[in-house]
Amino acid sequence: MEKNLQGHRPGSPVRSGIPEHGRIPKYYAVKARIADLLDELGEGGTLPTERDLAERYEVSRETVRQALRELLLEGRLRRSGRGTVVAGPKLEQPLSLASYTEGVRRQGRRPGRQLIGLEQFRCPPDLAPGIGAEPGEPVWHLERVLLADDERVGLESTYVRVARAPRLDVDFQPDSSFYGYLRDSLGISFGEADEKLETVLATPREALLIGTPPALPMLLIHRFSRDQDGRPLERVRSLYRGDRFSFTTRLRAE
């Protein structure tokens, strides 16, 4: 336990999260010891029960439970059936114009999407400028659950003018890349996009669709995209599990 409580491993928080006065909560000390156990078990390894951990570290089950809650929120653990197992590394999604499909494939995972709904509605005034529509014009709303190796990891809502993709409900395969469809079937390429990233809690409906507890932190990305000619094209609202995703980007000096 010494390396977790007093040392500093590369990539870990400074002083491993210990306050300057050196006193740490009991649950945090247990969390550090369980983290070492996870390294020993390896990805997919089954964690001992709360009772066994409480006896091993000579603490209450509530102390163990609090440590496990944090490890679950951080994505170090995941529920599997009636047990808890060591989770694999988080998916790294680039902040770029590459699609979700391309980003997941680059990491050797199998991307997928599950259709929730595809419907038309009249464009409200607040949405119109972002997708280049007139208020009241027909707009598509495409909603899909994001999958990685059949694991539900996010929820994606896409808004685009019906005039830009008039046969979306006929020609598009819902489990495929929307960007690939625009490029290959309609000759529309993406030129640039504005994105905003924030942390949120999922609504009860979103948590049910993604299969997570409502208290799990989510990463929310709002994207407004423009085509190769600079015309507004789509608005996308993407909700990603905070315990399964991290985002990367490369910065350059102007």
Automatic annotation (TrEMBL):
Domain of life: Bacteria
UniProt entry tagged with the keyword Isomerase: no
Keywords: DNA-binding, Transcription, Transcription regulation
PROSITE patterns the UniProt entry points to: HTH_GNTR
Region (Disordered): 1-21
Stored InterPro entries: Bact_HTH_transcr_reg, Chorismate_lyase_/UTRA_dom_sf, Tscrpt_reg_HTH_GntR, UTRA, WH-like_DNA-bd_sf, WH_DNA-bd_sf
Keyword hit for Transport: no
Domain (HTH gntR-type): residue spans on this chain: 24-89
Protein name per the record: GntR family transcriptional regulator
Native source organism of the sequence: Streptomyces virginiae
